[in-house]
């Protein structure tokens, strides 16, 4: 019943205690998580001369396994041999678990192979031992052996194998284990279904996870939370909120993990009203001081552009973790305050006794890139080396992007060349984009083909970077060739940004692409690129056509109005230029100030 204190009092009052009474106490302490007390009780029993039975031995071995004390386990193993209990299947199985949790897989295997009675439980313990010690392939080999021995898996077998699949990140293996669970009728266990949900969530396979969830006869709070978390992670925030309402209407209670997912969904949607409502629920349910929830709310308010509320939660929080600091720094960046974000990073380094991690350093580098501060980027690079975080690919990728945005593509290339084995597709995208935005289109093109030659498979961002590079450098034929490859391969979804790059490329070459077949949102982005091309070539006829065709769009975009006005002025049509400028005042449009990428000054 978990009333350990009452059991203690009753035990102390008993004038005579036999081995059964002592065994109950030893086993009871272990069962209630008091593992050290279980071992101490066992030793007290031995000190008064009582010999343990198999129940006592199993009880103390449970305590030893949870304490992860190998020497204590070996001592008890010696006692087991001395008392002749080594052939007992319950004792042998418990001893297996001790060596498994202590990381001694060699002795664990020896004990397992010497067990005379090998029912399913020892097999499960041995499979779990392999999983616990990250021997995932060996776990599956053992499972295959158990099958050949004529044993049928139970829920514990399934849980161990699913845990292996999570670690191995193998979708094929995952589907095989899922089939095994269905075949042996283990889908009725909520814990097994929850593990499968977690597995598919890790693999980001929403259809399979949803099918399991939808067919579950019984769902607990973990089931709902896992699916909500997957939906939020895949940015199906609206669906996550709908799922929450369905859960609530079904009469299910929700915990802080559900609330955390709900807050994240509100942040993704920018739904401040609902975010405040969930915040109230957090306080009502007594989770107002829970640090992970507070960190999530800092991020949510920042994404909803309510920076004051975000700061209020941050400063009022008595405890702050590195996640808290990262959340407020990211929030400041999201709201266009890179200087404040960098100041916050400096503060956490100087004032707080917290070691900076890779995530907060990436945020700091992002702030520097937005400020276009080359010297600060160099200082952060040195700090990265000093604190030993150079092996983090995310930091190296961010350094490439930051150096590129600061105009020093040579330093960006140095970082890229030093990465070697750390490179991923983001690294290649960053360096290709870096050369592109700095006007080195041919170098970017060369890197793109080098990436393809090395076996790399471009993603949407890769193609966007190289098309942009070709557009800025006037590599008309190369850009069109790459775009035709994208269409032929039909492997990525071609977005408005891709079309916009191609339209800009064509317009800069003096041609008019056909935008009539594109959707409204895509057409706007493409036409904006075409208008830029018109200004580049001084093509007034095409620019005026743009003004007539997209009259509503252009009148609401101050930047495009200024471009057209400047074009009128360049050909001597000053009255038309003045009329456009005056229309900006009438529409209350303000031109965004220019920003120098070299000096960071307005």
Portion in beta strands: under 5%
* Count of runs of 4 or more consecutive helical residues: 35
Low-confidence stretches: none
The number of distinct β-strands equals 0
Query: Main β-sheet, in a few words?
Result: none
End-to-end span in angstroms? Answer: 70 Å
**Coarse morphology:** elongated
Protein architecture, described:
It is a single chain. With 602 residues, the chain is mainly α. It has 35 helices and no strands. The model has no long low-confidence stretch (mean pLDDT 86).
Structural features:
602 residues; 73% helix; single chain; mainly alpha
Question: Gist?
Answer:
By secondary structure, the chain is mainly alpha-helical.
Topology:
Elements: H1 4-13, H2 19-31, H3 35-47, H4 54-67, H5 70-83, H6 89-101, H7 105-114, H8 120-132, H9 136-148, H10 155-168, H11 171-183, H12 190-202, H13 206-215, H14 221-233, H15 237-249, H16 256-269, H17 272-284, H18 291-303, H19 307-316, H20 322-334, H21 338-350, H22 358-371, H23 374-386, H24 393-405, H25 409-419, H26 425-437, H27 441-453, H28 460-473, H29 476-489, H30 496-508, H31 520-537, H32 540-549, H33 551-555, H34 558-570, H35 574-586
Helix pairs in contact: 1-2, 2-3, 2-4, 3-4, 4-5, 4-6, 5-6, 6-7, 6-8, 7-8, 8-9, 8-10, 9-10, 10-11, 10-12, 11-12, 12-13, 12-14, 13-14, 14-15, 14-16, 15-16, 16-17, 16-18, 17-18, 18-19, 18-20, 19-20, 20-21, 20-22, 21-22, 22-23, 22-24, 23-24, 24-25, 24-26, 25-26, 26-27, 26-28, 27-28, ...
């Amino acid at each position: 019943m978990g009333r350990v204190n009452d059991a203690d009092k009753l035990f102390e009052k008993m004038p005579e205690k036999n081995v059964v009474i002592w065994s109950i106490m030893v086993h009871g302490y272990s069962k209630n998580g008091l593992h050290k007390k279980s071992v101490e009780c066992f030793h007290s029993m031995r000190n008064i001369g009582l010999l343990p039975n198999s129940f006592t031995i199993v009880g103390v071995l449970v305590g030893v396994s949870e304490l992860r004390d190998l020497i204590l386990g070996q001592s008890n193993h010696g006692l087991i041999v001395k008392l002749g209990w080594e052939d007992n299947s319950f004792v042998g199985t418990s001893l297996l678990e001790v060596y498994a949790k202590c990381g001694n897989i060699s002795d664990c295997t020896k004990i397992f192979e010497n067990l005379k009675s090998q029912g399913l439980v020892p097999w499960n313990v041995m499979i779990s031992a392999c999983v616990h010690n990250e021997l995932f392939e060996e776990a599956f080999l053992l499972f295959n052996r158990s099958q050949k021995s004529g044993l049928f898996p139970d829920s514990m077998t399934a849980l161990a194998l699913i845990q292996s699949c999570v670690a191995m990140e193998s979708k094929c293996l995952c589907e095989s284990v899922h089939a095994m669970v269905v075949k042996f009728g283990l889908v009725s266990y909520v814990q097994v279904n929850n593990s499968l949900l977690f597995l598919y969530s890790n693999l980001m396979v929403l259809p399979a996870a949803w099918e399991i969830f939808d067919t579950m006869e019984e769902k607990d709070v973990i089931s709902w939370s896992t699916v909500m978390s997957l939906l939020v992670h895949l940015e199906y925030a609206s669906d996550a909120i709908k799922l929450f309402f369905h859960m609530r209407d079904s009469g299910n209670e929700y915990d802080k993990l559900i609330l955390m997912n709900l807050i994240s969904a509100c942040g993704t949607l920018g739904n401040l009203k609902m975010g405040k409502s969930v915040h109230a629920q957090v306080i009502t349910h007594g989770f107002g001081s829970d640090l992970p929830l507070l960190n999530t709310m800092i991020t949510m308010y920042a994404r909803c552009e309510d920076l004051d509320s975000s700061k209020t939660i941050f400063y009022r929080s008595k405890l702050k973790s590195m996640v808290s600091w990262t959340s407020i720094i990211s929030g400041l960046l999201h709201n266009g305050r890179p200087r404040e974000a960098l100041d916050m990073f400096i503060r956490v380094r100087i004032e707080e006794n917290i070691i900076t991690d890779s995530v907060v350093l990436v945020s700091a580098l992002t702030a520097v890139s937005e400020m276009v501060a080359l010297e600060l980027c160099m200082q952060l690079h040195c700090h990265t080396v000093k604190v030993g975080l150079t092996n983090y690919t995310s930091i190296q990728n961010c350094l490439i992007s930051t150096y590129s945005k600061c105009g020093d593509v040579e330093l960006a290339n140095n970082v890229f060349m030093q990465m070697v084995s750390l490179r991923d597709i983001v690294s290649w995208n960053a360096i290709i984009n870096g050369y592109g935005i700095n006007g080195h289109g041919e170098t970017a093109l060369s890197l793109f083909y080098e990436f393809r030659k090395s076996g790399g498979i471009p993603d949407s961002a890769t193609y966007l970077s190289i098309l942009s590079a070709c557009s800025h450098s006037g590599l008309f034929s190369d850009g069109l060739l790459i775009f035709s490859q994208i269409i032929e391969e039909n492997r990525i979804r071609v977005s408005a940004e891709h079309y916009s790059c191609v339209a800009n490329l064509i317009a800069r070459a003096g041609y008019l692409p056909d935008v009539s077949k594109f959707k409204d949102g895509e057409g706007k982005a493409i036409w904006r690129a075409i208008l830029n091309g018109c200004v580049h070539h001084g093509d007034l006829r095409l620019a005026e056509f743009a003004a007539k065709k997209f009259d509503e769009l252009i009148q609401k975009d101050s930047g495009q109005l200024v471009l057209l006005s400047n074009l009128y002025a360049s050909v001597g049509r000053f009255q038309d230029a003045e009329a456009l400028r005056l229309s900006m005042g009438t529409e209350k449009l303000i031109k965004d100030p220019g920003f120098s990428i070299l000096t960071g000054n307005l």
